[in-house]
TrEMBL record:
NCBIfam families: HIBADH, PRK05617.1. Pathway: Amino-acid degradation; L-valine degradation. This is 3-hydroxyisobutyrate dehydrogenase. Gene3D superfamilies: 2-enoyl-CoA Hydratase, Chain A, domain 1, N-(1-d-carboxylethyl)-l-norvaline Dehydrogenase, domain 2, NAD(P)-binding Rossmann-like Domain. PROSITE patterns: 3_HYDROXYISOBUT_DH (PS00895). The keyword Oxidoreductase applies. InterPro entries: 3-OH-isobutyrate_DH-rel_CS (IPR002204), 6-PGluconate_DH-like_C_sf (IPR008927), 6PGD_dom2 (IPR013328), 6PGDH_NADP-bd (IPR006115), ClpP/crotonase-like_dom_sf (IPR029045), ECH_dom (IPR045004), HIBADH (IPR011548), HIBADH-like_NADP-bd (IPR029154). One of its GO terms (biological process) is L-valine catabolic process. Its EC number is 1.1.1.31. Residues 506-631 form the 3-hydroxyisobutyrate dehydrogenase-like NAD-binding domain. It comes from Pseudodonghicola xiamenensis.
């Protein structure tokens, strides 16, 4: 056992004490292994009622992971040590979060990085007057890891984005407000508290000795934080900070300017993915591992450690420091790892999957499932080859013996035809997941047929386009039973960034239709506004700077800007080659109006958007262009 940690049982408590105060109790690999080993042992020990984790010294509970060895091995090209360290550290973080007994952490002084992973996932998190917490990883080219993204995604408002991008420190009141701690107990009462915990094996004394925490500065600035950090891209957040007045915004902007652009952009993306109520600590850790697994060769991590901790020149040379960060960079860092995916004890990941429809969307989705280790058999009417996918001679053959069959098909008529072929071939108890975008009536009819045959059924259309399919960043809108969604959810987590269970059969299609009606309408409005700005002599960049941080904010403006050279990279910067083709938007708008007619809903803006895209695709030059190519269309047109 390492000398840097003292492990023992005292009374009813398992005790873990960090004993390297001279190093601010920095967490080493050996310490991680020792903690996990003993916690798994204590989980089955009836004599241990709870676990107490504390540390020697006044300056720190644990100021972070010991990154010196990660740097030393990384600069030699040996990435295996760091990957193994992070893998086992994250498994320990999950063990603490899911522990079957109370875990009490006593966090004085600095608790940062790896210390957060040990101290902030337990059931009873205690701070005192000296406590200072932070997630400073963006300052060394990493992301808030050890489950930090999960905690940040649960913080009030946009506090998580603020803390993750600025690395701001939290005092005890802030830590409780942000969800990193639970109880404030003055330090001079800690010895008494631990003695009571050891004697009783009961956590009740914590609440009895707790006092009101100092005021949270974060709470006082919450409205300002929400306004400044509302952007869904790093460029939008920077623009908001640059346009703001006041000391708070200026301090935040200076912090953002110091940190790695790639790290901050990935942090924003991760928090967006994890904000769903269904997200878990394990999903956060698996997502974090995607970044850290790639971090040494492909991020700013080694440069950040060099500048901050090795040479200490405080002058890191960040990638993309002087220009916009390519959207592909974030997608790459957070793409699924395939066979290197982080797994946890007791997980069963592998399934036999049939995948029917391997076009521009289905092909990359099937490939990501195969990369993750699943046995995928595919079928498509066109001859295709997908890495890791075994091709079948028919849809029925692909479906035979599969645990899950996924379809990605052009329309409801084809879905009904394929369903009639594969449902009889599927095994009872298997799950039919349709990811096509079709009419609600077809989705419900196929679900009824599947359920009548003893199958589980999910309609789960996607949003995110071909880029999202390739990068594994799709959003799934799912309809079906709770049981069916639970089976499909691990697969959605591989293929996408978010899955929302919208309700019973057909609800996924309904959500997709409503979402894309909004998208079509807002894209037209955004393109009209840019064309109007041109004719009024308003600079496009100035317009973007205003609208992207004020009431005109929208996804079509901030994340998918139709004006070339403005905002984050989008199809507009690639001659409008489609990320989401205009004809697909027309298809979805027609589905929305079909549904509106069936439901007797008045949707005049949706109807007009359908008319405009029909004209663009069928009578102009819009076919084969991205749906944002409406902008050059409006540029050429005049009123009347």
């Amino acid at each position: 056992m390492t000398d840097d940690i003292d492990i023992r049982v005292t009374g009813r408590a398992g005790r873990i004490t960090f004993t390297r105060p001279q190093a601010l109790n920095a967490l080493s690999y050996d310490m991680c292994l020792a903690i996990e080993a003993v916690m798994r042992q204590w989980a089955d020990d009836d004599e241990v009622a709870l676990v107490v984790i504390d540390a020697m010294g006044d300056k720190a509970f644990c100021a972070g992971g010991d990154v010196a060895e990660l740097y030393r091995t990384g600069i030699t090209g040996d990435y295996s040590y760091a990957r193994t360290f992070w893998r086992d550290e994250y498994r320990l973080n999950a063990c603490i979060a899911d522990y079957p007994k109370p875990v009490v952490s006593m966090m004085q002084g600095f608790t940062m990085g790896g210390g957060v992973g040990i101290g902030c996932h337990g059931s009873h998190r205690v701070v005192c007057e000296t406590s200072q917490m932070a997630m400073p990883e963006a300052g060394i080219g990493l992301i808030p890891d050890v489950g930090g993204t999960y905690l940040l995604s649960r913080a009030p408002g946009r506090v998580g984005e603020y803390l993750g991008l600025t690395a701001a420190r939290m005092g005890p009141g802030d830590a409780i407000f942000a969800g990193f701690a639970d109880h404030y107990v003055p330090r001079d009462r800690w010895a008494d508290l631990i003695e009571l915990l050891e004697a009783s094996g009961d956590t009740a004394p914590i609440a009895e000795l707790a006092e009101t925490a100092p005021d949270a500065a974060l709470a006082a600035h919450l409205d300002e934080i929400d306004r400044l950090f509302a952007g869904d891209s790093l460029e939008a957040v920077r623009a908001s900070l640059e346009a703001a007045d006041g000391d708070f915004a200026a301090t935040a902007l200076n912090a953002v300017r110091r940190n790695s652009p790639l790290s901050m952009a990935c942090t924003l993306e991760m928090l967006a993915r994890l904000r769903s109520e269904q997200a878990t600590i394990r999903q956060a850790l698996e997502l974090e591992y995607r970044f850290t697994w790639r971090s040494q060769p492909e991020s700013d991590f080694l440069e950040g450690v060099r500048a901050q901790l090795i040479d200490k020149d405080r002058n890191p040379q960040w990638r993309n420091a002087d220009g916009p960060l390519p959207d592909t960079a974030v997608r790459h860092m957070l793409a699924p790892l395939g066979e290197d995916t982080l797994t946890f004890e007791g997980e069963e990941r592998l399934m036999k999957i049939g995948f029917i429809g391997l076009g521009n969307m289905g092909g990359p989705m099937a490939a990501n499932l195969a990369k993750a280790g699943h046995e995928v058999t595919g079928f498509d009417m066109a001859p295709v080859e997908i890495a890791g996918v075994t091709m079948a001679d028919s849809a029925a053959e692909a479906a035979t013996g599969a645990d899950v069959v996924i379809t990605m098909l052009p329309n409801g008529q084809i879905l009904r035809s394929v369903a009639a072929e594969i449902i009889p071939a599927m095994s009872k108890g298997a799950t039919f997941v349709d990811c096509s975008t079709v009419d609600v009536d077809s989705a419900r009819a196929v679900a009824e047929e599947a359920e009548a045959a003893g199958l589980l059924a999910v309609d789960a259309p996607v949003s995110g386009g071909t880029g999202g399919a390739t990068a594994g960043t799709l959003t799934f809108m799912a309809g079906g039973s709770d049981q069916a969604f639970a089976v499909a959810k691990p697969l959605f987590d591989i293929m996408g960034q978010k899955a929302v269970h919208c309700g019973t059969a057909g609800a996924g299609q309904a959500a997709k239709i409503c979402n894309n009606m909004i998208l079509g309408v807002t894209m037209i409005a955004t393109c009209e506004a840019f064309a109007l700005a041109d004719k009024l002599g308003l600079d496009r960049q100035k317009m973007f700077d205003v609208v992207s941080t004020s009431s005109g904010y929208s996804w079509t403006m901030n994340a998918y800007c139709p004006a070339p050279g403005v905002g984050p990279q989008s199809p507009a910067d690639n001659d409008y080659k489609p990320g989401f083709a205009s004809e697909l938007m027309l298809k979805d708008l027609r589905l929305s109006q079909q549904a509106a007619e069936s439901a007797d809903a008045d949707t005049p803006m949706g109807a007009l958007a359908q008319q405009l895209y029909a004209q663009f695709v069928e009578s102009e030059d819009g076919k084969g262009m991205d749906f944002s190519a409406m902008l050059p269309r409006f540029e050429k047109r005049h009123r009347g």
